[in-house]
Amino acid sequence: MESSESYGANINKAKASQADFNALVLRHKAMLWHICSDYSIGKTWKTEDCMQEVLISLWRSFGDFEGRSSEKTWVWRVATNTMLMLRRKDIRSPQTESIEMVSVDDKIDEQSNDSYQQLQQLIDTLPEENGTIIRAFLDGFSYKEIADMTGSSVGAVAMRIARTKRKLKQMYEKENNTSL
């Protein structure tokens, strides 16, 4: 009798966990999509595929969340680490890109996003830790939250962001033969 009761309790716990997970994903869906789209620009994988990988990673580690950081910080960290893993995997096994037909409307949309894509591509050339920190800064996290996510001090984060912003500005100016 006890075994069937514990079985029922486990099923209810699994349902509650599924409901909690679904709620977590809904609360952070925009941030997750943003992270996936930032890391997938110019890559051989699509944002939707990245989102699926991130959701799998979140699900696998969902039960391990201890609440030592904010939920948002934890979700950001899991998503970013998943995207970095995908990037490393992509670098180790380069794939050929397919040739796709592009419509005129797609070209117009593409041109309107050129600056954003250029920024993301410049960030991709930075060392991994600097790229992660500047992306977190651009996503609106505070220096304290970034410090918590990366295990650094607030001062180190502030210094790294300032240096990375200068570096990105120099790279942009060099690439576009301009001076901001």
Straight-line distance between termini: 74 Å
Please outline the major beta sheet: none
- Helix tally? 8
- Using the alpha-carbon principal axes, give the shape: globular
What is the domain tally? 2
Determine the CATH superfamily of the largest domain: RNA polymerase sigma factor, region 2, helix turn helix motif
CATH topology call of the largest domain: Rna Polymerase Sigma Factor, Chain: A
Radius of gyration: 20 Å
Task: Identify the CATH class of the largest domain.
Answer: Mainly Alpha
Query: Can you tell me the residue ranges where pLDDT is under 50 for at least 5 consecutive residues?
Result: 6-13, 96-105
Structural class: mainly alpha
Based on DSSP secondary structure assignment, what is the total number of beta strands?
0
Fraction in beta strands = under 5%
Overall pLDDT: 78
Topology:
Elements (H helix, E strand, L loop, with lengths): L1 H39 L6 H15 L9 H22 L11 H9 L1 H11 L3 H11 L4 H8 L3 H23 L4
